[in-house]
Each structure stands twice: as C-alpha cells, then as structure tokens.
Design goal:
Helix 1 packs parallel to helix 2. The protein is built from 5 helices and 6 strands; from the N terminus they run E-H-E-H-E-H-E-H-H-E-E. The chain has 176 residues and is an alpha/beta fold. It is globular and about 45 Å long. The chain has one domain: Rossmann fold (3-Layer(aba) Sandwich). This is Phosphohistidine phosphatase SixA. It comes from marine sediment metagenome.
C-alpha cells in the first residue's frame, strides 16, 4: 500500500477510536471504550494486512489517542524512535496540524497522524481538491476510528490547499 516512488509522500490520518463520554472528567483523560479498542484493533490489522511501513507516528497526548496509537504501534511493531507525542495536536486547529506535519524531515515519506476532530476533518478538507470533498456524503466524514490515506508529491513543509490525492478512507466500524 505504501510502496512510494521517490517523489511521493503518504499521510495516514487516524481519528482515535470511540471514547467514553466526558461527563465525569476532563476531556483529555477520556479513554477508549471496549468498542473503541476493537475499532483500533481493526485499523491496526488493516494497516498490517496492507503492508504499511510507517516512518513517523505523530500522536496527540490525550488518553484516547495514546490508546489508539499504542494498539497500532504494537501491531505494526513500530520502533520507539519513530514515535512522537506532540502536545500541539490536542485541541489543534488546521494551522497547528500543518506546522506539526511540516516539522517532519522530508526523508520521512510515510507518516501517521493520530488526533481529533474537527482539526482532522479540516486537514483532509484542506489537502483534498474541493470537487472531491464536495462528493463526500455525510457518512464519509471522519468518525471515530476512521483512517484516511492521502498521497502527495510535495514534501511535508510545502503542503498547500488541494495538494493531495485520496487513496482510501476506511471506517474501523465497518472492518471485519
């Protein structure tokens, strides 16, 4: 799935799995539900089955994103030097996410970003051509445990509006 040539970059955008309601505590500390854990396991299995080899994993420090990422990291046996917990991803806006992504060295061609809405939807909408985004129905939005695979020719520091192509959008709840 991520066998790129020398001028392609791949961005995998993953929203955390289903989290517990936040009514009894801080949003930051919300954990995955049993359903969320199962969703994350399905996404991890999907990535493994498709031979994804990640160069960098960028993770929000919130509990639910750390739990989601840990499931993927464990399944794919990702080395610790490829993992970065980035405070700026939690409660980020589009500009903050673009800055985090731009900080990745250009030799890293395959990146997984594990974060939250609405910033993840904003990022995907920014990177994809407007016509393609207009075709997406409400069921195609980035719900919990959704993985969006984007390809682009620009390095991380030069991402601009409409600079990516959609490869796939996978909802964890629909995976076997």
């Amino acid at each position: 799935m991520n066998k790129t040539n020398d001028n392609q970059y791949q961005l995998f955008v993953l929203r955390h799995g289903k989290a517990a309601d936040g009514q009894w505590g801080r949003d930051f500390d919300r954990e995955l539900t049993d359903t969320g854990i199962l969703q994350a396991e399905k996404i991890a299995n999907y990535l493994e089955e498709h031979g994804v080899n990640l160069d960098v994993v960028l993770i929000s420090p919130a509990k639910r994103t750390l739990m989601t990422a840990e499931i993927v990291i464990s399944k794919l046996e990702i080395e610790s030097q490829k993992i970065r917990v980035v405070d700026q991803i939690y409660q980020a806006n589009l500009d903050a996410l673009l800055k985090v992504i731009a900080s990745c060295p250009m030799q890293h061609r395959t990146l997984l970003l594990v974060g939250h809405n609405p910033a993840l939807e904003d990022l995907v909408e920014y990177l994809l051509p407007t016509a393609l985004m207009a075709e997406l129905q409400s069921d195609d939005r980035i719900y919990p445990a959704t993985l969006v695979h984007l390809e682009m020719k620009l390095d991380w520091s030069r991402l601009t509006v409409n600079s990516a192509q959609a490869v796939s959008m996978i909802h964890g709840k629909f995976l076997p």
